[in-house]
């Protein structure tokens, strides 16, 4: 019995000694063994940048621990950003960084700025560490505000529907949306036969105006829709900055000039899908916008295209035009897939020429 008690006492002593030894080893590994520690910012601010530029900044990594620090698997949440190791005039993408106790490394961050002007741009950088309590480190790379060459107000010039022959104008204010001082070298219309543009002088009060988001007011442009042709129009105002090699900034312009008479639809595409069939015919309604009686004459027709006008019952201000495409005739003569039916419309004694575009596509199989 005494021998058995001694056995159990010895066993307890051995287990306790093992536990103490394991705890001491764990404490050593946890608190006393030389271990690395990373000192690194959570965010790198690249400052305000202009769209299209490559922004650059620095990421300083320090090993403030007592063991070797290993950092690897550097990756960003966007392909527009990368981390580089600058050595002299050369820079290479970072693969691994090894730092002894007290050592530091300065990495270069580059990011292509492509966000919408007036907004911010942020990218996440993540990399792996050999620190048990911090296996991954994430750093946010931020451009607080994306700038641009110019900022237009309004950003798009919309004229809406304009009556043929009646011009209309709008004023666009142009602000310096970039980082440094700017002046306008020229403004040009992409379609001067549809709309014209010119710079107008700023008043003394306007010259000192500054917008918190758009910058200083540097110019005003007058856009004049000429309303010569009864058709939709769209294009751009091209703003070229002085002493700037970048492509011009564009201000979209759009509208529609309508005459005293219109057609619905204003274009036909053959074949048309009707029910479960494809057909090469369709109807166009010609109507007077002022309610006056009208009549329609059909001019010379393209080869393979036939058209005939019919009155609309009880609507003297409307007329229907039936258009048909005969593919056999067109294919024999190798006529292009685009054609125009020319209509002459008389409404209240006023004659208007309308062009009805026709597009002929391949018949689906």
Topology (SSEs and partners):
Blueprint: H1 2-32, E1 38-39, E2 43-45, E3 49-50, E4 54-63, E5 69-76, E6 81-87, E7 90-93, E8 96-99, E9 104-112, E10 121-131, E11 134-143, E12 146-147, E13 150-153, E14 157-163, E15 168-176, E16 184-189, E17 195-200, H2 204-207, E18 210-211, E19 215-225, E20 232-241, E21 249-258, E22 261-264, E23 268-270, E24 272-274, E25 277-279, E26 281-288, E27 294-298, E28 305-312, E29 315-325, H3 327-333, E30 338-347, E31 350-360
Parallel strand pairs: 2-11, 3-12, 14-21, 23-31
Antiparallel strand pairs: 1-4, 4-9, 5-8, 5-10, 6-7, 6-9, 10-11, 13-15, 15-19, 16-20, 17-19, 18-19, 20-21, 22-26, 24-25, 26-29, 27-30, 28-29, 30-31
Give a quick summary of the entry.
With 365 residues, the protein is mainly beta.
Supply database-style keywords.
Immunoglobulin-like, 3 domains, mainly beta, 5-stranded antiparallel sheet, 5-stranded mixed sheet, 365 residues
Describe the structure.
It is a single chain. By secondary structure, the chain is mostly beta strands. It has 3 domains: 109 residues, Immunoglobulin-like, CATH 2.60.40; 109 residues, Immunoglobulin-like; 100 residues, Immunoglobulins (Immunoglobulin-like, Sandwich), CATH 2.60.40.10. The chain is built from 3 helices and 31 strands. The protein has a 5-stranded antiparallel β-sheet, with no helix packed on it. It has a 5-stranded mixed β-sheet with strand order 2-11-10-5-8, with no helix packed on it. Strands 13, 15, 17, 18 and 19 form a 5-stranded antiparallel β-sheet that branches. The protein starts with a helix and ends in a 5-residue tail after the last strand.
